[in-house]
Amino acid sequence: MFLAIPLFMYILWVLAPIVQTIFTSFTQWDGMSPAKEWVGFENFTRLFNDSVFWTSLINNLYWLILFVAIPVPVGLMIAMLFDTKLPGNKIYKTLFYLSMTLSFVVIAQIWSWLFEPRNGALSIFFQSLGFESLGELQQGIVDFTVFFAIPLVLGFLFGWLINRKKEYQNRQKRWSITLICLAVFFVLSFILSRFWTPQIEVSRIAKRGFPWLSDPNFVTFSLIFAATWRQIPYVMVLYLAGLKNVPPQLIEASIVDGANWGQRFMHVVLPMLKPATIIAITISVIDSLRAFDIVYAMTQGGPFNSSSVLANYMYIESFNNYNMGYGSSIAVVQFIITLGFIVVYLGNVFKSEG
Amino acid sequence: MYKKKKIMIIGFYVLSTLIVLIWLIPFMVTSFTSVKSMDEIMASEYWFSPPEEVKWDNFAKAWEEGNMKTYFRNTFVVTVPAVLGALFLSTLSAFALAFYDFRFSKTILLIFVSGMLIPFQMLMIPVFRLSNTLNIYDTFQGVILFHIAFQLGFCTFFLRNFMTSIPSSLYESAKIDGAPDFVIYSKIVLPLTLPAIAALGILEFTWIWNDYLWSLVLLQSDEIKTITLGLVNLQGQYHSSWNLIAAASLITAAVPLGVFLIFQRYFIEGLTVGAVKG
Fold this sequence. Notes:
heterodimer, A: mainly alpha, MetI-like fold, 2 domains, two-stranded antiparallel ribbon, 71% helix, globular, B: mainly alpha
């Protein structure tokens, strides 16, 4: 009895539409004419031969990876920083949260100024670092990754692997092994850099100036970057709540046991934050898959569909080109991809309830 | 030990201040732009230099000429009933799902939860069609009703979780005393749920206020557009008046920012308890 009205509304506006969209995806329909023409899987075969669809799908993949890879660790780090009892931390948190309350349309507008090619904040910042153009910056990022970040990670990884096997108790010895590994990889990368430079394709406009939003190779990254500005505080909220659940006795016990800061973080805090991490990752993934507002408000998917994502392509096909059947099939693909993550999320939410 | 601690504390303040300052650069740029004259924006080399002369009339211009006042009012007209409606109806469904144990209660809850996570694109075309059929396309009611229906999923989930923490003995003893269900709902459960309703209301208010997609799909006439649509409109109309658009952006952001600053505790609580975002 209490359920009647809510459930009725929910079925009418949410559940029935899902079924309808799936049905429509097998038809050809302009949205106006009363009859939908049944075409079977034709929309889907057309989709798989559509280069814009693939661009969108790959961009969605970039969104997915970067939307987890950036906000989750950064959110965790900042949550760790602000999780103190020092006076004033509330003010810091409040200021940090502000970006989370904004509409994506406002964020799109604000960032379009930061992305201004000639004298926007980002262009000037990178110019002052010595980059003359976006192309140089892209090359710089690739060089940095290949010749610095990868050796660094590999060095630590190998050091850790060797130390783990031998189980040296001596702290100095452990460190010297890690340092030797790092040195070996840096020498290797230095030698490599003498013989080979990674060549990347830079679009013509990126060779001069900073076309953040008009360089087809870079525009998606610019959009993701702007969107993380809103996502990071959100992930941080989840982590701060998770940190509240870490019992202080556990931390104290580990200090008594002589664990250093790194060990404490790796073996005590991080395992306790596992539920928060799972939630943060699944939500970031789901959000990345339905990114729409910021793409549509900033670039509409352009230039030449290079920043298109599935959500945006679906909207343009359905409501600008009136290919509602085709649009529905894009939505269905998006839905199927999301479904897996929704199941993971629900599993986690309901596991705690039993 | 004492000295080390002191360094840590200073380090915390330096690092935090630095991070927050970097974080707020976008706000700063927008605020500066919104009070500059167009001549100054064009003349200055850096977009993020502080204004030489503060010009408040950009706000007045955006409000009057840019029609932000209409968009602003429209958004209230949509947001307030949508939030109230979603809250009221979801207290009903949450009550049913929290206190009655019937066959499909878990399934219904699951359906409510999963609905809020699906890509909006799955709903767009049918909802657009439905609004046309019901003759509520391009009306306030159309957007309001959709928001209510869609937000029911999250609200029900959120409130049910809260209501299950109310001891069921309370419900049972009232039942034995012969209180009808509706009285139990309104006199016992609802007052106890009030803090959760407040937190939820704050969240819902910001989400619906910030919505762009559904206004885009369901509204067409300029007179009834909501503020996010209005802002995009303005970008097209006053393409080269950056200062006006900056002022309009700040007007759009003002309400959620204000609500957040006043009710921060509820907002954060709501986010963590819900652990889900619309």
